[in-house]
Amino acid sequence: MAVSISYIAETVERVAPKIWAEEWDNVGLLVGDGATRIERLLLTLDPTAEVVEEAVNYGAQMILAHHPIIFRPLKNLRSGNSEAEIPLRLIQNGIAYYAAHTNLDQSDLSSSWALAARLGLQEAEILAPMGEETLVKLAVFVPEAAVEKVRLALVGAGVGQGITEGEHRALYAESFFRSSGEGMFRPLPGSAPAVGAIGELTRVTEVKLESILPERLLARAVRALKKAHPYEEPAYDLVPLRNRGRVRGYGVVGYLAQTHTLAEVWRHVQEVLSGAAGSGLTARPYSLHGLRWAGNPAQKVRKIAIVNGSGGGFVPKALAKGADLLLAGDVDHHRVLEALQGGLAVGDIGHFLSEVPMLKSVADYLKADQAFAEVEIMISAANGCPWNE
Ligand SMILES: [Zn+2]
Fold first, then answer.
1. Exposure winner among 115, 131, 182, 372, fewest CB in 10 A?
2. How far is the CA of 181 from the centre of ligand 1 (A)?
């Protein structure tokens, strides 16, 4: 079964809400119609002509990308206008384009987290916090016999993940409070009550199930609740909270299990990035050309900061956190000098290589949803590092 573009968008935005994106960014559905059904989906970092051609040959109806198209208003859609070329080709071939950019960078699916996990970083936290998630209290009143069904539906929608202040990741799942009481209602003419009869005051033993969830999960949670609940009009409360939610932001900083020399750590980073030794970080092995590192090979490294994409601007953050090594893409001359001055080694792992793990994370995340069982998802082979070897 195919899924709609809207469903794909909603699934991505559950992890990376569009509201998290920077103001200058351009995320979401940029070409296409939300109602279109998708059977083949191509994942890419960049929107190049080669990638569009790949999508055409593959028969993909949609490209899900990291980097957006159309940053400035287009003046025309003529052939020969280089800025219009990609949107034009997409439209000509009936291919939709969806971008998750700075919102994805701040999500659990960012490749900074994937790389941190592969390197085994401990006590990992966000390097540059950008905000906290808004929390909502959900309480639903359910007749005893349907409690388990409703509870499982809510768990399936992501409700009940414990939120520990200051922690990035959930440390608990399926967290609910339940209490019992009596619910009552009088079905009016025109209703079709699951319990009771029209015109009669009906009393039912009901359970109140309560939990806290981040607002980004709310739409799907309410839909799951309504679907699983036996009542025509389920009673539920949504209460905005002032409790502090999970932190979101750019990059990760954490500790290696043991101290190693910079040379040893750099060798290990390269192995992981190349996909060698089955690191599982990327869908396929990539060339390591263009990678460079700065710092004394013998210096000790324990605390590592990672920023996918253009990360040179995060040198001050990494210094402030006391990191020994910053792994990032696009670190320029002056930033490297600034880092070295403060005793921070730098591994410039390139913009492409630092972000391509994200595609595998997104693919794995989508495939974990039953609705994608029959959707073919391919990670672009035409998209790669643009620099010559
Ligand atoms: Zn990028």
1. 182
2. 53
Q: Are residues 361 and 45 in contact, defined by beta-carbon separation less than 8 angstroms?
A: no
Q: How far is the CA of 67 from the centre of ligand 1 (A)?
A: 6
Distance from the CA of 37 to the center of ligand 1, in angstroms?
28
- Residue 169 predicted with pLDDT over 60: yes
SS3 per-residue string spanning 275-308: CHHHCCCCCCCCCCCCCEEECCCCCEEEEEEEEE
C-alpha of residue 330 to centroid of ligand 1, in Å: 10
Overall number of domains in the chain:
3
Which phi and psi angles does 70 have, rounded to 5°? 60, 75
**Cα(43) to centroid of ligand 1, in Å?**
14
Which residue range(s) make up the domain with 54? 3-105+358-379
Domain boundary among 201, 220, 240: 240
Q: Ion ligand 1 — residues with CB under 5 Å?
A: 309
Whole-model pTM: value is 0.88
Q: What's the pLDDT at 56?
A: 97
Contact 309, 257 (CB under 8 A): no
Check whether 58 has a pLDDT greater than 90.
Answer: yes
**Smallest Cα–Cα separation from 73: which of 61, 65, 81?**
81
